[in-house]
Amino acid sequence: MQRTALVTGGSRGIGEAISKTLKSQGYNVAATYAGNDEKAAAFTEETGIKTYKWDVSDYDACVEGIAKVEEENGPIDILVNNAGITRDAPFHKMKLEQWKQVIDTNLSGMFNMTHPVWPGMRERGFGRIINISSLNGQKGQFGQVNYSSAKAGDIGFTRALAQEGAAKGITVNAVCPGYIATEMVMAVPEKVREAIIGQIPVGRLGEPEEIAACVSFLASEEAGFMTGATLSANGGQFFS
Ligand code: NDP
Q: How far apart are CA 37 and CA 94, in angstroms?
């Protein structure tokens, strides 16, 4: 039986690796993105994976978008909540807008995407929700009060919802990547990046495919006994 997976922010960065890995394992994959049409078109051209554009911070757009995805691809069995942004600033300089954008996308986006797929998963007695949190949600990070709050919230969301899904065959788990070589991290100044690498015991940034491997395990039938868990992949930088 071919399962259908939807990956938010699935056309580039970590999400791109997740989409490709799931497809290579035989899943029927669809991906969402926010605004980078050029990258999404190139991704579809390369992989054959359909992409859908909407903002995960907009609940109504999620309901509408998910209905379209399900109409074209069948019911969503696996939801990977990967879409995320950073708007870094030290707290004394952080604007309300920076706080709101990050909470609305990284935390409320998880509610907005999961809520519409949840009733169908309950009815069918199967589901996999995989939430991409962050190392910085586990340990906190200077300049990221907004991001660390949202990502810590993602873990709370995971643990609470796992309890509600357990009796219905739905698992809910989080993956906490450390620093991964994507545009998000490559955008920080080289000096800062070198300092970050100096704090990672394995001595390098992670690769998006290494996070995709965690997701692929959590999506599998074999992971049915694992729920409410937080899987850390951070090169040994932090143990929780
Ligand atoms: P990228 O910036 O490379 O890609 C982000 C993806 O999310 C893009 O596809 C983007 O769409 C999409 N996206 C952003 N905002 C929205 C929105 N409002 N609605 C819908 N889609 C949106 O990020 P990464 O691949 O680096 O990060 C992926 C996830 O992993 C994020 O949740 C991030 O917080 C988390 N993470 C990343 C780490 C890292 O080191 N890179 C470390 C720990 C966690 P578009 O292409 O249209 O812009």
A: 29
pTM: 0.98
pLDDT attached to residue 19: 99
CATH number for position 227: 3.40.50.720
pLDDT digits (tens, 9 = 90+) for 145-156: 999 999 999 999
Checking phi first, is residue 25 left (phi over 0); if not, alpha (psi -120 to 50) or beta?
A: alpha
Q: Tell me if 11 CB under 6 Å of ligand 1.
A: yes
- Is 227 a member of any domain? yes
The total number of structural domains that make up the chain: 1
Q: Which one, of 154, 106, 159, 133, lies nearest residue 233 by Cα?
A: 133
Atom of ligand 1 at shortest range from CA of 133: 44
- Ligand 1, atom nearest to 57 Cα: 18
The answer to whether 147 is a known catalytic residue is: yes
Residue range(s) defining the domain that contains residue 158: 4-231
Region for 143 from its dihedrals, namely left if φ exceeds 0, alpha if ψ lies in -120 to 50, beta otherwise: left
DSSP state of 222: G
